[in-house]
Amino acid sequence: MTTQDYAYQRLRNAVMVGALAPGTALTFRGLAQQLDLSPTPIREAVRRLSSENAIEVLENRRLRIPQMSLGRFEELVRMRVSLEIHAAQRAFPHLTAMVIEDLRRLDDSMDSAIETRDLDALTRLNHRFHEMLYCLNPHQVVMPLIESIWLQLGPFQRRVIEDIDSIKTVDRHKEILAALSARDLPALCTAIERDIRDGSIRSGRQMLVQRGES
């Protein structure tokens, strides 16, 4: 892995799991110091993340994690639903019993992360759960698009799940696993859409409405 790739992966992971809150001001020098790197790979990492709409490059070389608005949030959620249902449909013919068991173990680990309030692990495991399913399709080209949406939602969604006890929801991953075990594609698509739209997404929408975001 090159220094540029290392800087990109470190910074991208920080954004993806929500370690940087929406509106956080960043500097090239500060990021270089935090990652113990020279400014050159940081500039390349920021350029790549800016192209993914994960970091805003403002005037005077200022950097910022984008704020979340209700309109942007709704657009990202709609795109998640469309892309992830497509990915699940394309992956479905490649499903095996072994994969279902691997997904079940990931879901068990997510349950443990919720109990211990390990929000970083919870986010990473959730992404891994969906990625494992979607990447069953050997010809898939959609994961970079899905990951870009996860990246843009990450900082805001982390703020939402910090009060995880207040999020009332059915465990939609259990519904996904049941649909996979039954080899029921319509039920799988329904469960994935519910998984995306319920829980932290619903709470996030309520938070933005209460703030009067547009």
Rg from C-alpha positions?
Answer: 18 Å
Shape: globular
Strand order of the largest sheet: 1-3-2
CATH fold title of the largest domain: Four Helix Bundle (Hemerythrin (Met), subunit A)
How many runs of DSSP E, i.e. beta strands? 3
Please report the first level of CATH classification, the CATH class of the largest domain: Mainly Alpha
Compute the number of helices: 10
Structural class: mainly alpha
pLDDT < 50 runs, ≥5 residues: none
Protein name: GntR family transcriptional regulator
Pfam families: FCD, GntR
Keywords: DNA-binding, Transcription, Transcription regulation
InterPro entries: GntR_C, TF_FadR/GntR_C, Tscrpt_reg_HTH_GntR, WH-like_DNA-bd_sf, WH_DNA-bd_sf
Protein architecture, described:
With 214 residues, the protein is mainly α. It has a 3-stranded antiparallel beta sheet with strand order 1-3-2. The chain has helices at residues 3-16, 28-35, 39-51, 70-91, 97-116, 119-134, 143-161, 172-181, 185-197, 200-211; strands spanning 25-26, 56-57, 63-64. The protein contains 10 helices and 3 strands, in the order αβααββααααααα. The chain folds into 2 domains: 3-64, Winged helix-like DNA-binding domain superfamily/Winged helix DNA-binding domain (Arc Repressor Mutant, subunit A); 70-211, Up-down Bundle (Four Helix Bundle (Hemerythrin (Met), subunit A)), CATH 1.20.120.530. Helices cover 69% and strands 3% of the residues. A hairpin with a 5-residue loop joins strand 2 (56-57) and strand 3. The model has no long low-confidence stretch (mean pLDDT 91).
